[in-house]
Amino acid sequence: TVDKIKQQQSLKKKISRLEEEVEQKYDFQKRLIGNSENFKKIFPLIQKASTTNITVMISGETGTGKEEIAKAIHYNSPQKKGLFVAVNMAAIPKELAESELFGHEKGAFTGAMNARIGKFEEANNGTLFLDEIAEMELSLQAKLLRVLQEKEVVRVGSNKPVKINARIIVATHRNLADEVRAHRFR
Q1: Distance CA 48, CA 51 (A)
Q2: Hey, how many other C-beta atoms are within 10 angstroms of the C-beta on 76?
Q3: What are the angstrom distances between the C-alpha of 156 and each of 76, 107, 159, 175?
Q4: Which residues pair with 128 in a beta bridge?
Q5: What is the pLDDT of residue 41?
Q6: Can you give the pTM of this predicted structure?
């Protein structure tokens, strides 16, 4: 019993040290490096987004650090104790995207041998980062809008909504205003 107590105390100390390391690693004032005036304008926006639970959209060219900014927001927010779950929408086949995001029930489709939670449920009490959101199919965008409004998901093959509490951060290299005008984005 004493050994188990010592082991548990050791694990708690280790977790505490690791949490401190993560906080230092994602201190965006130190981690994000840039000297341009436009870059310096990002810091107050990150700070503001970190103190709320609002949905955030990050835009910028490929390779400019959109995911790093999303991580900075997450690890400096009240959601930092939850998971940061990143999903690249361009890398998910269209026919699997709904199941990947919302999960599915056993037998919902051929090959669904077990129930599986989706990325929204995985990110519960944390942050879900949807990269390349403009690649998402219009029909899936409608379901995403419902999730954002109702804060619940319905797994594929189920009628039962599951409440979620995940902060959503999305990113794209495309101009979403142009995508909306072209009827490719809701």
Answers
A1: 6
A2: 19
A3: 33, 10, 8, 31
A4: 85, 168
A5: 84
A6: 0.80
Give tens-digit pLDDT for 130-145.
999 999 999 899 899 9
Angle between helices 66-75 and 42-50 (to 10 degrees): 40
pLDDT above 90: residue 15: no
State residue 8's pLDDT score: 87
Identify the pLDDT of residue 36: 76
For residue 92 the two structure tokens come to 């998910």
Edge-to-edge strand ranges of the sheet holding 56-59 = 56-59, 167-172, 127-131, 84-88
Q: Average pLDDT in the 41-69 region? A: 89
Chain Cα centroid distance, residue 183: 25
> Do the bridges between strand 127-131 and strand 84-88 make them parallel or antiparallel, or are there none, so unpaired?
parallel
CA-nearest of 51, 72, 53, 45 to 151 is 53
Q: Which residue has the tokens 């449920």?
A: 121
- The pLDDT score that the predictor gives to residue 102 is 92
